[in-house]
Amino acid sequence: MRQERAVRTRRLILDAAASVFDERGYEAATIGEVLARAGVTKGALYFHFPSKRALAEGVLGEQFAGFVLAPRVSKLQELVDMGLALAYRMRCRPVVSASARLSLGQEMGAVFGTWTIRTWLDATERVLREAQEQGELLPQVDVAESAWVFSAAWTGVQVYSHTLSGREDLVERVCALFEHLLPSVAVPAVLGRLVIDPARAAEVALEGERLAAEAGEPAGLDGVGAPA
């Protein structure tokens, strides 16, 4: 029971920290705000997270956790589902949304480096390379370059949606992104079979969270068929 209580307390603190970081950014956030939202004592917070930096690291660590995407027959569909699921989770899961803001903040790059961006880039390149091996890509496609463009464009869509609509239209904007970029890399026969639909986002995200819960452990972008 003590262990279960500690897990619940840690979860409360992470959720509270995520909401504060997402609203105010890393520099403006304070431990006091996190304590007020979590409803825990300072001692409890410092037992799990000895500093604001440790709190931010905890939130960042959750960005790619708790989600498993089962491998798709079409690897380009897998790429689409990765993006749709992340867009949905950013809108509905504060810790995922906060992780995105932290990983993109200029001050965070100086403090924590660029591992979250690199993780997303590597995952995108991995899936595109698998798509290439299956004959889903046009002959002239440079996988590494395409992964960079897809990842950077996704980030731009996320930032614009966050700024202009509070991410209310994020799923729809991500669908538009794929509809614009995929024709430049996909062979026509594969392109015509891809499902790029806002309604798919919730379905994929909830399926992935269910699979992660059944597995009993969080997954990450570096696992086979396991993006965030």
Automatic annotation (TrEMBL):
User: By its UniProt entry, which Gene3D superfamilies does this protein fall under?
Assistant: Tetracycline Repressor, domain 2
For this protein, the DNA-binding region equals 30-49
The organism's superkingdom is given as: Bacteria
Q: Which UniProt keywords apply?
A: DNA-binding, Transcription, Transcription regulation
| Alphabetized GO MF terms | DNA-binding transcription factor activity; transcription cis-regulatory region binding
Please give the organism. Answer: Streptomyces olivochromogenes
Residues covered by the HTH tetR-type domain = 7-67
Which named protein is this?
A: Gamma-butyrolactone-binding protein
